[in-house]
Amino acid sequence: MRIVQDEDKTTIVATVTDFSESMGYCEHRVEYFLAGIKPPPKPEMIKGGEKHEEEEKYEEEHFEAVAITDEELSDIEKDIEFFRDKIYTRFLFEFDKNKIFLILIGRADKIYRSKGTLFIEDTKFTKNPEKYTDLFEPYEDQKLQILAYLNSVFTDAEGDESFNPVSWFSVPHKKKGWIIRIKDMNSKKTVKIFKGIQSKEIENLLIENIRRFCSLILGIVEPQHHNNFKKCLSCRFNKECKDCLEN
Ligand code: SF4
Q1: What is the pLDDT of residues 164-190, one digit of tens each?
Q2: How many whole angstroms from 21 Cα to the centroid of ligand 1?
Q3: Ligand 1 — pocket residues by CB below 6 A?
Q4: Relative to the CA of 245, which ligand 1 atom is closest?
């Protein structure tokens, strides 16, 4: 995460993960993301990343990437799907009119349009599927992450070019929907699916969290502690965090 100061404007550049992990897990993480502190990922994160790569490789080997034409993109009735390794998300927010901007960069697992609804689908691997048995809603960080993707524009440009608004595009749609698929790390079987259509209420929830995220980064408000010992125990920042309840 970084703050870029130009003559007449300030731009906060962060990842979707910086946002969802701060606002959906612990606000104290903002300080560490800003300082560029990145503790090593937990073994479950590494394994989850490997499973994602396996799925991407499988898709590459078994499905042919077909370019989507401008006509197909603009035809709202046309079902389309983007190839996951060729598209990035850019969420833009004007925090303070013409002065402070936020850009969240990311890459969603699946982006497609079906029957006029724009869908983002994300897969999470867990080594502990039982913890989802009684859950009817995804965890807050999972929800905020997918909502940030869903309300982004997209780019298929690489490197610096992907930050150039000229390369950004929207996917015309009537509604927005999201799917979070939870898979067992070992068997790769789906154990739970959370899904929903974006309502005004959910959109407001995202914007409220985005505003608070910006306020935390700019030091306008102080982080609130969740006071949950278990969260600190399993947090990858707990070795260096001065607010850790475990220390
Ligand atoms: S150790 Fe606890 S307080 Fe510190 S960032 Fe992690 S969850 Fe937050």
Answers
A1: 999 999 999 999 999 999 999 999 899
A2: 11
A3: 26, 28-29, 231-232, 235, 237-238, 241, 243-244
A4: 2
* Residue ranges making up the domain that contains 149: 2-233
Q: With respect to residue 25, please indicate whether it lies within any of the assigned structural domains.
A: yes
Tens digits of residue pLDDT in 78-125:
999 987 667 899 999 999 887 999 999 999 989 999 999 999 999 999
Instruction: Measure the CA–CA gap between 84 and 65, rounded to whole angstroms.
Output: 10
| Structure tokens, 174 | 């009537």
CATH code of 219's domain: 3.90.320
Q: Which of 104, 101, 95 is nearest to 11 (CA)?
A: 101
Q: At what angle do helices 200-217 and 16-24 cross, to 10 degrees?
A: 100
Domains in the chain: how many in total? 1
Report percent pLDDT > 90 for the chain.
74
